[in-house]
């Protein structure tokens, strides 16, 4: 299975740190799957201008093609000004409206305050659902107080990240089997 872990911000370090933990969880517990961490801060991404995702080149083309080829995607986002970053929204705009069809998508959010715990629910889930993803309903929310010196300091947060990785794989495998059975039933 091809798993893409997307750190959806060009600023800050906490989301990237958390997404590195997600990647480590997949690599340590499920090494048979291919995982790739894409950090928007490391890429030179163009603004969406309505072109087909295949028409972009450079980092933008690499990002869109990698996401479109993924079986499962874990999206990480910080919460800035009670919203997702514009850089992450731009990624969604670069993809086709049904760009997440037949993909399992799960989410992780970092924020400075517990007051923002519903941002993924109210802003990310509608976008991901509109793009036709099979969405893991639970997500990981990590407050700033659980980070120190580039590390996550709370064992419960690490446990929730491991559970997110496991649940993402279970959902992706379940939907893959359902699609295979459906396609096999056509008999041609």
From TrEMBL:
TM ranges: none
Record domain NADPH-dependent FMN reductase-like: where: 1-143
A matching Pfam family: FMN_red
InterPro entries according to UniProt: Flavoprotein-like_sf, FMN_Rdtase-like_dom, NAD(P)H-dep_FMN_reductase
Database matches in SUPFAM superfamilies: Flavoproteins
Molecular function terms from GO: oxidoreductase activity
This protein's record includes keyword RNA-binding: no
UniProt keyword annotations, A-Z: Flavoprotein, FMN, Oxidoreductase
UniProt subunit comment: Homotetramer.
PANTHER family on file: FMN REDUCTASE (NADPH) (PTHR43408)
Record's protein name: FMN-dependent NADPH-azoreductase
Organism: Salinicoccus sediminis
């Amino acid at each position: 299975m091809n798993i893409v872990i997307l750190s959806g911000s060009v600023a800050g370090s906490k989301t990237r740190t958390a997404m590195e933990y997600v990647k480590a969880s997949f690599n340590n517990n499920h090494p048979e799957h291919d995982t790739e961490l894409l950090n928007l801060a490391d890429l030179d991404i163009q603004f969406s201008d309505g072109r087909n995702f295949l028409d972009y080149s450079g980092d933008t083309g690499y990002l869109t093609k990698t996401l479109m080829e993924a079986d499962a995607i874990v999206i990480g986002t910080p919460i800035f000004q009670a919203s997702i970053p514009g850089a992450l929204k731009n990624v969604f705009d670069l993809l086709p409206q049904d760009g997440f069809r037949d993909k399992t998508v799960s989410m992780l959010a970092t924020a400075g305050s517990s007051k923002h715990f519903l941002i993924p629910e109210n802003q990310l889930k509608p976008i991901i659902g509109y793009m036709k993803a099979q969405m893991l309903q639970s997500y990981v929310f990590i407050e700033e107080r659980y980070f120190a010196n580039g590390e996550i300091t709370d064992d419960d947060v690490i446990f929730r990240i491991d559970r997110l990785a496991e649940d993402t794989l279970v959902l992706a495998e379940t939907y893959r089997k359902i699609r295979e059975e459906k396609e096999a039933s056509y008999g041609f």
